[in-house]
């Protein structure tokens, strides 16, 4: 089974060694929000809700393809979103008049997949497009359980008691809440089970049904494995949910960062000091030696990025990061902030005085690609890196890469460490 714990492509890829595709039903009108725009197309920080959901699945290398089922009148809009936000694994198909019909169209599309690199999936994940917060390790559990059991679904404890009413609108009886759970998404099915279930189900199921797990049991005799998921599984349904989703998106985007050390012991020590210091900000730091090979995944995820290079001539490191970001060809949905911290020795001119043109040119070119380059000299380190980071998070800059080069005398490391602690306390 998948290793529990932090979302980690490596453990998920080790678990899921079979083809998995995703169907995102997005053909609804979102009436309960009271808005004109269907909720899946409402934008947060300049980006439609559905793009966050797609991005979450695209960032998982073991997901081979994604099909989004949208209303016919929204097909052009969906195609534009796919192009504008450089979504690669996804294609749009027409949805249906009900959620089940949309999902069925998505499943059928997976069966007619023409892209040679994408075969028929072993497991199909079904996930409402308006549930943007899907965690990789949980999704991996659902996919594994679906492969073993034929069907698997996410559940959450009930918040309110379920009661049955009489036709006159009075209480008939209430259900014992402890015995029941709320059915959420993601759900997973083997391709055979979900396609058979939709071939055999009735018109009434298509018209009034809301539960795919029920179809698997009713029409394929497949009893879904139920797995309790995290509270983030909730569905955006009402207008208040849009506000909640926006604040969670902002919160999520500014809670993790990637530190690149070049593999040098002293840089790793500095990164460890930073990790201890930002722990108080409830930030999670991932420390990697470089952005090569597997570590290139850091460029794909919604990582926060600040580049902190401590070597006196590390403009090439800044350029290397910009090249890597360019190579990933991802739409930079928020400003990518590259902070260049330079631990200059007393006898050295500040970098800005020695290489002003190169830095200015690099910064102005990068700005056109939504990348903001900042510089800090160690002498200015009273405004310590950490407070700089929190300042940038407040600004809403969410892509912060910490790249720690070297050429730092050990005294500076200690001072940096001490300063980090002081700036946290
Ligand atoms: N004909 C439909 C109806 C719904 N959905 C999708 O199913 C998911 C969950 O459904 P729900 O929250 O009910 O969305 P809406 O039907 O849009 O909401 P409402 O009932 O408020 O109109 C959403 O992503 C929605 O876009 C769909 O693909 N096709
Ligand atoms: O019923 P709605 O169309 O609001 O949303 C669909 C939900 O019912 C569905 O996502 C889960 O209950 C799991 O089946």
UniProtKB/TrEMBL annotation:
Record carries keyword Membrane: yes
Protein family: Belongs to the IspD/TarI cytidylyltransferase family. IspD subfamily.
CDD domains according to UniProt: CDP-ME_synthetase
Main location as per UniProt: cytoplasm
GO BP term, pick one: isoprenoid biosynthetic process
Full protein name: D-ribitol-5-phosphate cytidylyltransferase
InterPro entries the UniProt entry points to: IspD/TarI, ISPD_C, ISPD_synthase_CS, Nucleotide-diphossugar_trans
Enzyme Commission designation: 2.7.7.40
Pathway(s) the chain acts in: Protein modification; protein glycosylation
Described function: Cytidylyltransferase required for protein O-linked mannosylation. Catalyzes the formation of CDP-ribitol nucleotide sugar from D-ribitol 5-phosphate. CDP-ribitol is a substrate of FKTN during the biosynthesis of the phosphorylated O-mannosyl trisaccharide (N-acetylgalactosamine-beta-3-N-acetylglucosamine-beta-4-(phosphate-6-)mannose), a carbohydrate structure present in alpha-dystroglycan (DAG1), which is required for binding laminin G-like domain-containing extracellular proteins with high affinity.
GO cellular component: cytosol
Any one Pfam family match given in the protein's UniProt record, by short name: ISPD_C
Domain D-ribitol-5-phosphate cytidylyltransferase C-terminal: 255-382
Gene Ontology MF: a single term: D-ribitol-5-phosphate cytidylyltransferase activity
Catalytic activity: D-ribose 5-phosphate + CTP + H(+) = CDP-D-ribose + diphosphate; D-ribulose 5-phosphate + CTP + H(+) = CDP-D-ribulose + diphosphate; D-ribitol 5-phosphate + CTP + H(+) = CDP-L-ribitol + diphosphate
Subunit-level organization: Homodimer.
UniProt key word Transmembrane: yes
Location in the cell: Cytoplasm, Cytosol
Record field: transmembrane: 385-408
PROSITE patterns linked: ISPD
Organism of this sequence: Maylandia zebra
Keyword annotations from UniProtKB, A to Z: Cytoplasm, Membrane, Nucleotidyltransferase, Transferase, Transmembrane, Transmembrane helix
């Amino acid at each position: 089974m998948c290793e529990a714990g932090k979302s980690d492509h490596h453990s998920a890829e080790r678990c899921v060694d079979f083809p998995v595709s995703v169907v995102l039903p997005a053909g609804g009108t979102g009436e309960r929000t009271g808005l004109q725009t269907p909720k899946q197309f409402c934008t947060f920080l300049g980006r439609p809700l559905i793009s966050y959901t797609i991005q979450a699945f695209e960032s998982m290398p073991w997901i081979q393809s994604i099909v989004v089922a949208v209303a016919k009148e929204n097909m052009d809009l969906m195609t534009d979103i796919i192009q504008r936000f450089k979504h690669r694994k996804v294609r749009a198909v027409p949805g249906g008049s009900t959620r089940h019909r949309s999902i069925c169209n998505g499943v059928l599309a997976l069966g007619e997949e023409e892209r040679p690199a994408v075969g028929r999936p072993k497991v199909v994940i079904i996930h409402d497009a308006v549930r943007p917060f899907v965690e990789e390790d949980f999704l991996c559990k659902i996919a594994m359980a679906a492969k073993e059991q034929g069907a698997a679904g996410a559940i959450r404890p009930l918040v309110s008691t379920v009661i049955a009413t009489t036709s006159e609108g009075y209480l008939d009886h209430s259900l014992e809440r402890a015995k029941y759970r709320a059915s959420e998404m993601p759900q997973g099915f083997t391709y055979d089970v979900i396609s058979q279930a939709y071939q055999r189900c009735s018109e009434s199921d298509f018209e009034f049904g809301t539960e795919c797990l029920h179809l698997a049991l009713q029409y394929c005799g497949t009893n879904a494995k139920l797995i309790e998921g995290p509270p983030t599984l909730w569905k955006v349904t009402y207008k208040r949910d849009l506000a909640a989703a926006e604040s969670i998106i902002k919160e999520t985007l500014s809670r993790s960062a990637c530190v690149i050390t070049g593999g040098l012991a002293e840089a790793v020590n500095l990164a460890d000091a930073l990790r201890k210091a930002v722990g108080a900000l409830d930030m999670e730091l991932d420390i990697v030696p470089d952005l090569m090979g597997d570590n290139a995944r850091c460029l794909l995820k919604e990582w926060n990025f600040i580049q902190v290079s401590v070597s006196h001539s590390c403009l090439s490191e800044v350029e290397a990061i910009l090249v890597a970001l360019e190579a990933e060809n991802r739409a930079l949905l928020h400003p990518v902030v590259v902070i260049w911290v330079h631990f200059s020795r007393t006898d050295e001119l500040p970098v800005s005085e020695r290489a002003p043109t190169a830095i200015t040119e690099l910064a102005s070119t990068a700005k056109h690609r939504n990348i903001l380059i900042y510089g800090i000299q160690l002498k200015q380190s009273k405004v310590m890196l950490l407070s700089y980071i929190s300042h940038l998070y407040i600004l809403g800059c969410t892509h912060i890469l910490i790249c720690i080069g070297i050429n730092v005398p050990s005294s500076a490391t200690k001072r940096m460490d001490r300063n980090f602690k002081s700036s946290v306390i």
